[in-house]
């Protein structure tokens, strides 16, 4: 392929779409590697990668339809990835038997407080209809939220963005809140992070301790399952 053909391909829609996919993957793994050696919140992949990608896409003037032409497959991979959530449930079944009431109450509180707080926000803050409906499932992990949001009339892409923002905020404010509320137990920290900040919360809980991470993951999974199964009923209540 001659130099001119290479340039033409890179500047074509297909070339830009392929470049966008490679850029997204590179930014994620680059941020992940940085965070491995420098544990500061703004280098966390969930924070740094979206910011860098957004800035590059904006400054390089890549049209959003072109950007999503191939990168949407990364989002599509979230659905089959939910099957993997069965593994920690089976692996930690003894922990579930040991703390059934605490985990059950954490799941119930996290599920309904997340939806009620979102409903109150939508009720008192004027937002576009699509955003309002997409916001209601922001407190569950992305794969579950994107599946459940259709029952509320939400847009999956907007829902994913709301989930991301919720997780990042929860990850940032958790430790000051734990100190303020005097939450010291592994169980309390794990349930709180899994219920309020889903995937980002589970990652933060794992940094705090192994048991915190396990409990946060279990709480996040059970809340996600409950949201998907109950979404048609919840939609009738909150819409």
Walk me through this protein's architecture.
- With 239 residues, the protein is mostly helical.
- It folds into 2 domains: 1-62, no CATH class; 77-238, no CATH class.
- Helices cover 83% and strands 0% of the residues.
- It has helices at 3-11, 13-37, 45-59, 64-76, 78-81, 86-91, 93-98, 100-124, 129-135, 142-152, 156-181, 186-208, 210-238.
- 33% of the residues are buried.
List its salient traits.
2 domains; 239 residues; transmembrane helix; 13 helices; mainly alpha; LrgB family protein
The outline comes out as globular
Helix/strand-derived category reads mainly alpha
Number of domains: 2
Q: How much helix, percentage-wise, in residues?
A: over 70%
Let me know the largest β-sheet. Answer: none
Count of discrete alpha- or pi-helical segments spanning 4 or more residues = 13
Report the uncertain regions.
none
Please indicate the percent range of residues in DSSP E strands (runs of 2 or more): under 5%
- Counting DSSP E segments of at least 2 residues, the number of strands comes to 0
**Rg on CA atoms, Å:** 19 Å
Mean pLDDT across all residues, rounded? 83
Subcellular location: Membrane
Organism: Shewanella baltica (strain OS155 / ATCC BAA-1091)
Keywords: Membrane, Transmembrane, Transmembrane helix
Protein name: LrgB family protein
Please give the structural blueprint.
Blueprint lengths: L2 H9 L1 H25 L7 H15 L4 H13 L1 H4 L4 H6 L1 H6 L1 H25 L4 H7 L6 H11 L3 H26 L4 H23 L1 H29 L1
Helix pairs in contact: 1-2, 2-3, 2-4, 8-12, 8-13, 9-11, 10-11, 10-13, 11-12, 12-13
Organism: Shewanella baltica (strain OS155 / ATCC BAA-1091)
Subcellular location: Membrane
Pfam family, one: LrgB
């Amino acid at each position: 392929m001659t130099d001119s053909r290479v340039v033409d391909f890179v500047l074509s829609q297909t070339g830009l779409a392929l470049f966008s996919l490679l850029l997204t993957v590179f930014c994620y793994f680059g941020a992940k590697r940085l965070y491995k050696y420098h544990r500061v919140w703004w280098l966390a992949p969930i924070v740094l990668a979206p910011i860098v990608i957004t800035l590059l896409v904006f400054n390089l003037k890549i049209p959003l339809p072109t950007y999503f032409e191939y990168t949407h497959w990364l989002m599509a991979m979230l659905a089959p990835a939910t099957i993997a959530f069965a593994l920690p449930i089976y692996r930690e079944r003894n922990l579930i038997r040991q703390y059934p009431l605490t985990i059950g109450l954490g799941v119930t509180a996290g599920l309904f407080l997340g939806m009620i707080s979102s409903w109150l926000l939508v009720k008192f803050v004027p937002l576009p209809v699509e955003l309002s409906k997409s916001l209601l499932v922001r407190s569950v992990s992305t794969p579950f939220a994107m599946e459940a949001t259709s029952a509320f009339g939400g847009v999956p892409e907007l829902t994913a963005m709301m989930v991301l923002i919720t997780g990042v905020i929860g990850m940032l404010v958790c430790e000051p809140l734990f100190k303020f509320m005097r939450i010291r137990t592994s169980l309390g920290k794990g349930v709180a992070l899994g219920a309020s900040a889903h995937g980002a919360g589970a990652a933060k809980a794992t940094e705090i301790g192994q048991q915190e991470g396990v409990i946060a993951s279990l709480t996040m999974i059970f809340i996600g399952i409950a949201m998907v199964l109950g979404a048609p009923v919840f939609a009738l209540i909150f819409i």
